[in-house]
Amino acid sequence: MFTIDKETFKRDYLKKFLELHGRELEEGTDHHKYEALGSLVRDYVAKAWIETNKRYKATGEKQVYYFSMEFLLGRLLGNSLLNLGIRDICKEALFELDIDLDQLENFEQDQGLGNGGLGRLAACFLDSMASLNIPGNGCGIRYKYGFFEQKIINGSQIEAPDYWLREGNVWEIKKPDKSEIVKFGGEVRMEEVNGKLNCTHINYEPVLAVPYDTPIVGYENDVVNNLRLWSAEPVSNEFDFSSFSRGDFLKAIEYKNSVEAISHVLYPDDTFYEGKILRLKQQYFFVSAGIQSIIRNFKDNGGDLSNLDEKIAIHINDTHPTLAIPEIMRILMDEEGMSWEDAWRITTNTVSYTNHTILAEALEKWQADLFKKLLPRIYMIVEEINRRFCQELWNKYIGQWDKISNMSIIGDGFVRMAHLAIVGSHSVNGVAKLHTEILKKQEMKDFYYLYPRKFNNKTNGITHRRWLIKSNPELTKLLNETIGTSWIKHPTDLENFTKFADNTEVREELARIKNNNKKKLAKIIKDAQGIAVDPNSMFDVQVKRIHAYKRQSLNCLRIMDLYNKLVENPNLDIVPRTFIFAGKAAPGYYLAKKTIELINAVADKVNNDKRIKDKIKVVYMENYRVSLAESIIPATDLSEQISTTTKEASGTSNMKFMMNGALTIATLDGANVEIRDEVGDDNIIIFGLTEREVLEYYQRGGYSSWDTCNNDPRLRRVTQDIINGYYSPDKERFKTFYEHLLTYNDEFFVLKDFDSYLNAQAKADELYRDIHKWQRMAAINIAHSGIFSSDRTIQEYATGIWGSGYLYKNL
Ligand code: 26V
Hints:
Alpha-1,4 glucan phosphorylase; 2 domains; Rossmann fold; ten-stranded mixed β-sheet; pyridoxal phosphate; binds ligand 26V
């Protein structure tokens, strides 16, 4: 294992600083100091990185490649130091140089190449693969602009570009010699030569895919895995791209721009699919580059392609990388001369797929004519996959034309990516028990009947190294002092903490730690937006993407109701609360942006009303991102997980909150169900419609939001307040919000769940009054959170899907 003593570290650091900046430490800025440290850590990591690679080559172990359009890594310095096992030494050494490590870490820009849950999950998975000694690599896009930066101006969201590379990125290494060429457009010629079909692709637009590698450090195990992100560049002048650029300056510039657009920006949508051709281009770009480099590497190491599936597992994170399937087919057939049958067997045995949402509006389907024009050879292969698949259906479901056309991969003029992903892979998984059941019973039921063995569940997880050890050092210390340190490598050992739930001293210590974290967050809030919040109030938090199904609206309506009650009776006996929101809305999602505005309008009114004596405060924190989550989550008392049942595939912040000792108020949706099963009904607050009730309303109707509203004076009042000028002189401002609830019958049952939600909140209020009772519940939540470590999730993927890793070999 990597070790270093304090003096050597100091020497190395000063040397690095001088080399990098050409000046003495005293003359450097904080950013200089951060950069020198990052760069030094990368040097330390480099040796293990190379060694890991060599070891994988020597043992010939199965390699996993996790393909994802998004990797939401956040900051890397703190976690790399932690995983290397030198964070404490480094902190002491820097202290002696008059540098505060915690502060320095704040100078790192978040690497925000993801929208939300799906991208962060990919990042947690990389951390777990490295920490479990699983040869697992990430493959994605190096967007020049990450997820936009959110500013709240006059209560509304304004988007600014996230040029995260402005000050450089110490973690990445560019590897131009490992570039690949990706081909778009053009024509395909098929010729029969000696009884074999030969395929040539001509007049295409070539794009150079250049890889940038980032080391992923395992926890104290000398493993350093690789995340490879591809950047698009024009091919060099020597390349003969004759038909469109030679001698024509303007065309050459156009070409350059069109190429660079590919890795320019991350699409800031996570639930609404638009058929933007650039996005399809992004998908094929990184998938083709990734697959080509895997196969090239495999062959260079003497691999035999006929057993590719025994040596390599390719996992696709949602449908975005589904073109991996026809791309592998293309290479095996066109470039390696394999038969369709052999190529198909190898491809399907290699690829596995995770579904992350059941929202119909997020399902990817590409217009077939656009697809064909952009990717002519890939389209031919998809057509052939579909022809053979439909043949199989015809033989099985004689005469059932509707069923067959519903299941077809190409239909109604579109290529349906989820269908291609299911047909072309050997495993399809959902991300929580309920979600997988809904996939099997509803969304993908026809495919489940056809391929029951492909479907399986892998409940999500989070890395406890970032989300507990790194972000909550005081809680980590308490755990180590009470139950020892075995939980760090075996997170389910956190269960041993259960016996301390009844220990008065431990409960008091838990309360003290929480209060400390709340004080830190209160300072961040004060510095950022000038609002004073009381660390002794209950911190009631909802942070996540803004979406109608996640129901920030429900949370907002109950705050409005509570405010009305307080105005009526300022002496109302309630536990003082600070309501904290954060999250970004997709720039084109009008209702979500209006939700942010409404919350801010409510905040403005509530925070400035002297009558209610500061009993409640509402804060909307700007620019939610991984590093901000790391400050908010350890400071939370109550975690809001209030999506409409059936809509949230899993959720992962729910797991982060419980691991940090927050209690959860939740619907029985996504992984909330499993959290409830772990902690028991007494240690979570559940409310709202059940799965059955929701599905019945969707199928049979019978819900009238209008009637629900009219029968509840509280709802009548708060819904009127949205449009009567109470929160904005402009009565039109929140009209859409109102209409969604009342004119369009409240698609997500916000009004229906209102009463039950208020009762649940009253229960939270009552529990919080007895701090011992509350901390007992907090302790039980922490103790049962180990199962939600992504180490458990990754072990399940490795043994159940990929057939990889140490655990698999020792089964
Ligand atoms: C979908 C789309 C649709 C087209 C436009 C661009 C785009 C980008 C990303 C996505 C993926 C959305 C799906 C997603 O993020 N699902 C979340 O996945 C989490 C990890 O499994 C899970 O915890 C959340 O419940 C689920 O909403």
